[in-house]
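Chapter summary example.
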Amino acid sequence: MITFAKHTHEHSKVEKIGFYLSLACAVHCIATPVLITLLPFLGGSFIENHSWEIWFIGGSLILAGVLLFNDYRKHLNALPLVLLAGSLFVKLLEIVWLGEKFEFLTGTLGALFIALAYYFNWKYKKECSC
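The structure predicted for these 130 residues follows.
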């Protein structure tokens, strides 16, 4: 099994990183349309290059998956994993069916699902003292 830290205190630091990455993703999804509108001179290379976005989303999902699954084994509440799966589903829905036209909505919704998954995971860990 993959673990990021041996101690609970260190594990919490990694969880916080994952939580803040998902919030940063939500801010990105909200701010990008505004930046595109207000700062068109940025449009060329940075905004059109989606490779960094793929790495960012992929890294966030992998980090969240490992952390949430490890904690699920302790508190046995599947809601955080369901929310993570919902986030992945929303992103796949965008890629396969909706396209970039709805990226603002799907990106924001996906990041919100991950942030909620972390929130409920913390709540369940606190309740079970694990």
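To summarize the output: The CA atoms of residues 18 and 82 lie 17 Å apart.
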